[in-house]
């Protein structure tokens, strides 16, 4: 299954909510998202869907 590019998705979500520093924040959010997918257990309550 193809994984979507999270950077533009996250950036658009942040900009639509009025964040001025969306480009700076998107790097941190995507890093957090990817690390949580790697380091947290694969249990159902850790739903990593957008």
Automatic annotation (TrEMBL):
Alphabetized GO MF terms: ATP binding; dynein intermediate chain binding; dynein light intermediate chain binding; minus-end-directed microtubule motor activity
Top-level taxon in the UniProt lineage: Eukaryota
One of the record's GO cellular component terms: axoneme
Limits of the Dynein heavy chain hydrolytic ATP-binding dynein motor region domain: 1-50
GO biological process annotation, one example: cilium movement involved in cell motility
PANTHER family named in the record: DYNEIN HEAVY CHAIN AT 93AB, ISOFORM C (PTHR10676:SF36), DYNEIN HEAVY CHAIN FAMILY PROTEIN (PTHR10676)
Protein name as catalogued: Dynein heavy chain hydrolytic ATP-binding dynein motor region domain-containing protein
Species of the source: Phytophthora nicotianae P1976
């Amino acid at each position: 299954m193809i994984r979507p590019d999270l950077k533009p998705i996250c950036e658009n979500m942040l900009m639509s909510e009025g964040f001025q520093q969306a480009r700076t924040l998107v790097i941190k959010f995507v890093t957090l998202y990817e690390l949580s997918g790697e380091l947290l257990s694969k249990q159902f309550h850790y739903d990593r869907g957008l």
